[in-house]
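Regression test attached.
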Amino acid sequence: MSEVKFIGWHGLVVLVLYAVFIMATCIYLSARQTRKDSLKSFYIGGGGLGAMLLFFTLYATQYSGNTVVGYAPAAYRTGYAYFQSIPFFIMVIVGYLLFAPRLHVLAKKHNFVTPSDWLQKRFESKAVTLLGTILMAYGLSNYLLEQLVAMGHAISGLTAGFIPYFYGVIFLVIIMFIYEWLGGMKAVAIADTINGIALMIGVVSLMFLSLRYFGSLGEAAQFIVNEAPKKIGVPALETSINWISIYILVGVGAAVYPHAIQRIYAAKSEKVLKKSLSRMAWMPFITSGMVFIIGIIGIKAFPGLDKAQSEKLIGMVANVIASKSALNYWMMMILYTGIIGAIMSTTDSVILALSSLISNDIYGRFVKPGASEKDKVLWGKIVGICIVLLLLIIAWKPPATLYEIFVLKFEILIQVAPAFLLGLYWKKLNKNGVLLGMIIGAVVASGMTFAGVKTFHGVHGGVIGLAINMAICILISLAVPSSKDEEKKAEEIISLNA
Amino acid sequence: MDKSFREPIRFKWIWVVLAIITLAGVPWYLPQGTIYPIILGFPYWAFISVVSTIVLAVFMTYVINNYWDMESLVEQDEEGGQDK
């Protein structure tokens, strides 16, 4: 990222103007409509997000800055097999199709605000709700940490180091806190709309300018055939297995992200949700698809980069383009702003989801069950700020040991999936099975990460954990069945009749 | 139950078709290392992936629009619930 020779103060002015514009727009459009004494209004926009806001908040939350900055180098190193980054984003929509239709209806029926509301309603077990909430909050915190680090790098790239990494992050975090504090989910959705548009413009222009200055994909393919045939030939079987494993990990994992589930709750109607998701099925082509092409073109444009050098690929590409004309220079400024915007839009959604888990579930259920909604919302906001401050300290001075603790995300989050995928349809699924499944699934997945075994014959630790988790859920629920009364109650809860 | 009620997970054929489209796009069944022909800048196997991905997006759009209709069962959906 630090390769672009932007003039520092240009980047600074662009960044400040952009951030202030977003903050002012969000506050103006959302603050008065959002009630701070209602969990539902604050955390899921009153369950009334329309098609445009819902689509952009889904889009900008799902595609982070890493989709541009990290995926182009991955395509550069892997070659054509990284085409998987396009279908795997469609797999997230397939993941939604497994549970969103029913969950949307049930969320409206039972007034859910957080994913833990479902766990509590369905299993009526404090242990299941608490463990599920902790797994989700833990996975989200690490996801947030990753976004904060990425944000710092992107800001120092845009301002050519003019703004030190840490101060840049603090500045944007304060901006996000202000609009979130005042406007909740509505503000986040509006910010996501602006950030999503900036990202789209940035990525599309980067791809077309890359084709113009570095040659076509066909020329790149010919170069790769001669210089790096492994990157263009049919990959080994293990790569294909890994490819399918990623589909499961991302498809199920990203769909059950707490902020993703809350967007199912936030949709104004089924029609709006369907419209947004069917549009989302096409977005990978103009996001990760274009980034993939840039990565492949990069193999010919900047041959022979090692892993560390290739990480700066987007910066190198942008630098060459920016040096060609003043217009290009400003286009690349928009790209960098879009990248920062994409990171912001993921970060603000994660902060809001984390804060809702703390306020509605940890505080509202376990610390002070009788608290008023106003009290809960306030508590969630304050603890949310404390967690982000803690994460900022970790991002600033990363610990030398136990680094793996901060790497676990999907692997852990995905372990709550059976409670949704099975729990929504199978009345026999019970709290014992879900609890034991979650524990063992999380231990297996994190154990593999700690042991440094990322995959087993190409299959990810998170997917292996999920498979074991699912099997335990089913076996325990059959071996130690619920009483007839409990089953009848479960049947009533998952029933669609109003 | 209302005849227009449709929930995607209940249609087994949807998931069979999805599995076929998805697996066809991953080159596990092709000879390792082969490249030619190159079509529009993609080696043939990646081009198959491109086609399968487009088909996947088309199919998802079709399924979402035609096999997902729970609203006919829950009429109140549009209005949302009361605040918690």
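Expected vs. actual: identical. The first helix of chain B runs from residue 12 to 24.
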